[in-house]
Amino acid sequence: MHDILSKMAENTPNTSIDSAKESDATYDHVIKYTGLFGGVQGIMMLVSVARNKIVSELLGPSGLAIINLFNNAIKLINQSTDFGISFSAVKHVAELFDHGTEEEVRNFVRTVRTFCLMAGLLGMLICLALCQQISYWTFDSYDYTWHFAVLSIVVCMLTVQGGEMAILKGLKKLKKVAVIAVFGAIATLVICAPIYYFWRIEGIVYSLVLSGMAVLAIHLHYSNKVIPWRVSIFSKQEYANGIPMVKLGIGYIIAGIFGQGAEYIIRTLILRFGELADVGLYTSGYTLAVSYANLVFVAFEADYFPRLSASQHDPQRMNQTINQQIEVGTLLMAPLLTLFVLAMPILVPLLFSSKFVDAVPMAICASFYIFFKALTLPTAYLALAKGDSRMYMMTELVYDIFIAFAIPFAFKWWGLEGAGWALSVAGFLDMVLIHTLYSITYGYRMEWRKLKLYVAQFICFAVAVVFALHENPWMKVITAVMLVASTWISFAVLKNETNILPKLKNKLWRK
Asked: Lesser CB count within 10 Å: N end or C end of the chain?
């Protein structure tokens, strides 16, 4: 394992702009980097599965709920105070990497690190000052005040490591990003498992702090190999240099507050309408339907956003980049989602425990959200690539307001299954909103010749979901048939439009 990851950590060769454009025009490039980060996310998923299994067995639904509520509160404070640097810095570093000098890159990296350190300390102080109120807002009790006081250091660490990751992405050190992700996930598992075993729920805070320290250390270790860590806290010039980055990040930070705030509201309202165990069940269903699938989208983003940023001035190249990403995302996600709904009754006891079986219908109903997201996410990045933080903020606000009210309302009246359907409806409405607005504003055009492909995959998936929800186990045979049909469609298209499958076949044949 270490040898493989060491090879992955080798610096990627610099390419010219022309060669970058050439690679952008091929599906093989998209598949290549999706495969790289997809493999990494697969390893991370296995580690996450092991961690969730340990948590569910040792802590149960209530323990999972407490961890999730802690994380949501801490991430909300982090995203409220980090100036959006973890995202906006990628664009600025990437532009300097392509068109600037080495000295300009190093100076701006120092600016990024200075802003991240100051923002992290600000977030930590705010968390300390409001820890009593945060405890009451989150748990309707002051009993967790000291927990949030201790967790304030996690806010600072999240901001600093977000800046380091942005620097590596902007410098196109994607293999280092992959290695950090894997080692970070493994370190978290190694640290958390014994703590939960010996201290159960009482060890949650310590596990979050210690695992956060380990992950930050891994980030700094690899990023320092690229550019040594330097900050200039008292330099006025550093703050002046970072203003454009912060301006772009304002939309992202507000959108992040909306998003994390919506998740925070959803879980606190579910706690009000139900019990702590209901929050744990909702979290497990959300993890299965959304979080694990999101690992695939993370695989897309690491390579996709820099390519989109580079192409956004050329309408034809921009549309080609977006439509390729949508097609590849749909081809990969549709069969995986169909397999997911078929295997759900087996996955829940396997990945969590038998205490979480009530989350199965919710996870199946919510899986439409991921299908729609595969059609939406590549387009949604366009506003950020163009530096239009206002548009990005507006679309995120509409979506977050909807889910903040719709999911708790659906849970109150129809339980967890209703919450799952509400999430899927939100995904559909978000898709319609973004495609419509971005078409009018930026001249984005979906390739309608691909519409038949998307409709065919949607029909296969929708039929699979309907029969997966049926109580008669024999009905799930139809879900299996839909899985075969969806896989065949994706395989046929990839075979015609890429050289990945022949290359893979040749490699396997040589072995």
From this structure: C
Has residue 281 been placed in a domain?
A: no
As a whole number, the mean pLDDT across the chain is: 82
Burial (CB count within 10 angstroms: exposed 0-12, middle 13-18, buried 19+), residue 411:
buried
- Number of domains the chain is built from: 2
444 torsion bin: left (phi>0), alpha (psi -120 to 50), beta (else): beta
Q: How far apart are CA 413 and CA 340, in angstroms?
A: 27
Q: Is residue 209 part of a domain?
A: yes
Q: Give the pLDDT band (50/70/90) at residue 304.
A: confident
Q: Is residue 299 part of a domain?
A: no
Instruction: Kindly give, in sequence order, each residue whose CB lies less than 8 Å from that of residue 140, ignoring residues fewer than 6 positions away.
Output: 271, 272
Does the pLDDT value for residue 316 go beyond 80?
Answer: yes
**pLDDT for the residue 41:** 57
Residues 348 and 257 in one domain: no
Q: Structure pTM?
A: 0.71
Domain that holds residue 462: 305-511
CB count within 10 Å of CB 472 equals 8
Q: Are residues 255 and 313 in the same domain?
A: no
Secondary structure (DSSP) of 99-166: HS-HHHHHHHHHHHHHHHHHHHHHHHHHHHHHHHHHHHHHHSSSTTHHHHHHHHHHHHHHHHHHHHHH
**What is the 3-state secondary structure of 449-483?**
HHHHHHHHHHHHHHHHHHHHCCCCHHHHHHHHHHH
